[in-house]
Write the structure tokens for this entry.
Amino acid sequence: QVQLVDTGGGLVQAGGSLRLSCVASGPILSTNYMYWYRQPPGKEREFVAGIHWTGASPSYADSVKGRFTIWSDKFRNTVYLEMNNLNPEDTAVYYCHTGEDWGQGTRVTVSA
């Protein structure tokens, strides 16, 4: 089981930016892709972005394309999510995910 620690959430005004980090430990060699998901208040958890540990094949949900950037640092076992031009619809708890294991989540709140 891979352990994931998500950090970097907070309160930000619309138009602002945040950077989330996910540090992985344990048998991470068993994983290939890393993902960010989010769960807005009262809604289902949804895919945000994904990337291979090598940095290849980044993918994004349509709602965040052009605003969010995902990248990985294999040497630090860390995956990042840079979020720019945030809007209130981005308010959610953000989770790192290996395809099997989940981080504890980090809350992002965007005020209008």
About this structure: Residues 24 and 69 are 19 Å apart (CA to CA). The chain has a mean pLDDT of 94. The chain is about 0% helix and 50% strand. The longest strand covers residues 18-25.
